Amino acid sequence: MPAELSPIDKAKFAAARRAVDFVEDGMKVGLGTGSTAAWMVRCLGEMVREEGLSIVGVPTSTRTAELARQMGIKVVTLDEAKWLDLTIDGADEFDPELNLIKGGGGALLQEKIVATASDQMIVITDAAKEVAQLGAFPLPVEVVPFGWQTTRGLIEEMLSSMDVMGRQTALRLNGTQPFLTDEGNYIVDCHLKRIGNPRQLSLVLNQIPGVVENGLFIDICDKVIIGGADGTVELRDINDGSVSHDRIDFAEESNIFSDLD
Ligand SMILES: O=C[C@H](O)[C@H](O)[C@H](O)COP(=O)(O)O
């Protein structure tokens, strides 16, 4: 483990490394997007190259697809895979019911489609993402560019009647230009502070013409793995209520970091 890895990176790696223990030969695996998911892709690549693990991966973004191919993972489309055994992905927030906010990196649409098309979703994360109630992280809402300002106005009008603490929205920018998702859509970030009823909000948001999808993942996540900088990991299963603990020995994982620049 390179000594220069930050504590947060060590925590993310620990969660990612524990998650790949659930990947078996022959599986079709959804590959998430973000810095934590990137560790997972690296770990799977190591297993493919060094242990002959035979899987196919369905990426949730172009950047994950590029990394997966670089790591030697066979990449297929969701249409080719049709259905997945397991999706492993990160999250921006998770609550006690393992409902999530995702989309901090703009990949929420493909991530939600892929996670929903999976028998199981495992979220890999660190303790800072755990909240009692969703909303401190701005909720990403993907909208089509056509009439986006009208769509934004309809979102804000809808929010005025919802159980949320904040109602400010902002177009996500990339420099001075609108941020574009892999599908060429825009993201409107909703600064809600606290979301009283995430399930209701997700349903209502997606009724608004122009809204493509939102970053609330309701009843999709099955397990969460919370990594620690010391290598400890906590695994919670929402389906049976179990909680288990493990420890990753970083010294045994040095191969993963050999190609890090
Ligand atoms: O759009 C990005 C995804 O939803 C990510 O899974 C999420 O933002 C978490 O990313 P990270 O693991 O980098 O915190």
TrEMBL record:
Chain sites annotated for binding substrate: 33-36, 89-92, 102-105, 129
Transmembrane segments: none
Enzyme Commission no: 5.3.1.6
Catalytic residues as annotated in Swiss-Prot or TrEMBL: 111
Annotated keywords: Isomerase
Recorded catalytic activity of this chain's protein: aldehydo-D-ribose 5-phosphate = D-ribulose 5-phosphate
One function term, GO molecular function aspect: ribose-5-phosphate isomerase activity
Keyword Isomerase: yes
Pathways involved: Carbohydrate degradation; pentose phosphate pathway; D-ribose 5-phosphate from D-ribulose 5-phosphate (non-oxidative stage): step 1/1
Top-rank EC class of the record's enzyme: isomerase
Subunit note: Homodimer.
Function: Catalyzes the reversible conversion of ribose-5-phosphate to ribulose 5-phosphate.
Protein family according to the UniProt entry: Belongs to the ribose 5-phosphate isomerase family.
Name of the protein described by the UniProt record: Ribose-5-phosphate isomerase A
Organism: Sedimentimonas flavescens
Gene behind the chain: rpiA
